[in-house]
Design a protein that fits this description.
Elements (H helix, E strand, L loop, with lengths): L2 H4 L2 E6 L4 E7 L3 H10 L4 H8 L6 E7 L4 E7 L19 H4 L6
Antiparallel strand pairs: 1-2, 2-4, 3-4
Length: 103
């Protein structure tokens, strides 16, 4: 099962000009718990998906009340600068979509 099939919401957005936040929200509590318990979304996985060093991942939090995962990344370039290709950070969740979850 791919993450886009398992999660109800997959989104990204700026969390200030220098950080990007990825949100993964599940509707199914059992599925969320399995992903969390198995550690299927961790710093190593995000580092590989986004081809960034793990130290650029400033937060990776499983938030049980929302059945969600919040991941914050330091942006390579600040939002709105010349080399920035997604000023709102709204298209940066795409690498997560194809993540294969061995459930």
């Amino acid at each position: 099962m791919r993450l886009y099939e398992a999660a109800k919401v997959l989104r990204s957005k700026n969390s200030g000009p220098f950080e990007l936040t990825l949100d993964v929200l599940f509707e199914d509590a059992d599925l969320y718990r399995r992903v969390k318990t198995l550690g299927l979304i961790d710093r190593k996985t995000i580092s590989e998906l986004y081809q960034i060093p793990e130290d650029r991942i400033t937060q990776l939090v499983y938030f049980d009340p929302a059945l969600g995962i919040k991941i914050t990344l330091a942006r390579k370039v600040s939002s709105g600068t010349f080399p920035d290709r997604d000023v709102y950070g709204a298209q940066q969740h795409a690498p997560l979509m194809a993540l294969e979850l061995p459930l």
